[in-house]
Amino acid sequence: MKITRDEFKRSEEKPALELFWQGIRAEETREKYTRTLRRILCVILEDLLEGTFEQRADQLVKLAKQDPEWIMDLLLNLSKKLRERTNLPSDHPDYFNPTSIDNYFKPIRKLLDMNDVILSWKRLHTTFPEIDNITQTREWKLEEIQAMLKFANGAMDRVIVLIAASSGIRSGAFNLNWEDIIPIYKVGDKLKLEIVESEIKNAKVVCAMIIVYRGTGSQYPSFITAEGYDILQDYRKEWTNQIGRESKPNDPIFIQEGSSLKQASIASIKKRVERMVEKAGLRNPLTGGRKRHEVPIMNGFRRFFNKTIKQELSSDSPLASLIKKEYMMGHTGLVKLDRNYFKTNVIELAEEYLAAAPALTISDEYRLKTENKNLREERNDLANKNLIRSLEKRIEELEYGEEARGAEYRKGIMEAKTDFEKIVSLLFPLVIEVNDDEEYKRKYWKELKESSKENRPINRSAFDPTWNEAEERKNRREYAKKLLESMMEQKRHPDNDKPWLKRPKVDMKRLMKELTIQ
After folding, report:
1. CA-to-CA distance for 305 and 225, rounded, in angstroms?
2. Pick from 114, 220, 357, 387: CA 20 to 30 A from residue 106's CA?
3. CB crowding 472-496: b at 16 or more within 10 Å, else e
4. Does residue 50 share a domain with residue 21?
5. What strand order describes the sheet that includes 220-225?
6. CATH number for the domain that contains residue 338
7. Judgement on whether residues 92 and 194 belong to the same structural domain of the protein
8. 234 plus 90 within the same structural domain
9. How many Å is the maximal CA-CA distance in the chain?
10. Dist CA 140 CA 297 (whole Å)
11. pLDDT in tens, 149-172
12. pLDDT tens per residue across span 427-454
């Protein structure tokens, strides 16, 4: 393979902002970075650059390429200005939180990196102030999430909250399509992603898998509870009424109001949650110069999920369980290759998730309803098993019970032709029926009949649980050895009259066979 001079083409120069946007996958991050970059270029650097937002971005990149020292001095000056604001009292209107200073430089770095401007960012980071005022934040509590849902406006609000709380996905992952939600069924004791027609009657949805960031290098599976999946089906009906047709796999789940199929923005989804939070009285106005609430509006759900799922016990080893739980949150994991390893083990992840599903179910009523349903199913299964055992016992009684054995004994006596056969037919029942345990006699008769039918030796363990084949063989060997010793002793001392040495004639072939048992 060769590239000729005619085939070789230089890449066309593109606007700086176009390359900047190409380097950002998540829509939410793109909007946030663009907003911050616009403020820097059009407000903070108003006197240094000219033109529109797009033109200012091109100017900044061009100047940075021409004079790297100029762009470094500019960023150092910006860092100094921001650092001065961090020293103000926290209740001052111009106070700037030191934890946010890096957020001002991330968009600029992305713009310069995507346009091949190389800088010593380490030098710039050394000018950032020490972070000593980190705001302590926490997760949404179960009672708070329940309070939000009381002020939900329709199924869309409810499903947003339930997906966020029971899956722990980031807010930027809400650009989901219907094909990204896959129900997981339980048929008997097995979990299945797909069921056949004959299994529909006995199958139930226990959770659903979400394919997060489908088609990207960051794709991973997460899950929602059966409660969340049920509400999603209610919302699907609203979705159908709004659009006027059934949903297709590649249609967006969350859409803007109206009859269009335009996907709802992440900002609009956040606003829906904010409205529920405010109506539920879960947030008070910020005072004393505070700029952040105790619970992040969307990340609070992710923290709830993380805390809840890690508190639940697992049948796996602690390390394997932690890897799976981290993977369900989209984290790379503790082992370098674990992301690839677990790609093909969705059912294993679902089993891990289901252990925490009751704690991730928000509605107390739904949880109790599910528990009662499970108890009823277990009771029915137990009743069915007891019925089956009862029927099996009745069949066994008819085939191998006292009446069945008696009929066989009488038949044997009637069919006996010689005196010897008649004697055996009369003695044989006495040998079996001498035992008082009816279950033992039934099992013995069953094994006797089956071994005869299959033309094999009788298996004593089938009717005698105390019988041990290895121990039996050992006893037989010991007995054979004693017989041999006795014979040898009697041969050496033929006049010895000790009774324990006196033995009847022994079949030597049988004796040697006993001695060579392995």
Report:
1. 12
2. 220
3. eeeeeeeebeebbebbeeeeeeeee
4. yes
5. 190-192, 181-187, 203-212, 220-225
6. 1.10.443.10
7. no
8. no
9. 132
10. 9
11. 999 999 999 999 999 999 999 988
12. 777 767 766 678 878 887 788 778 878 8
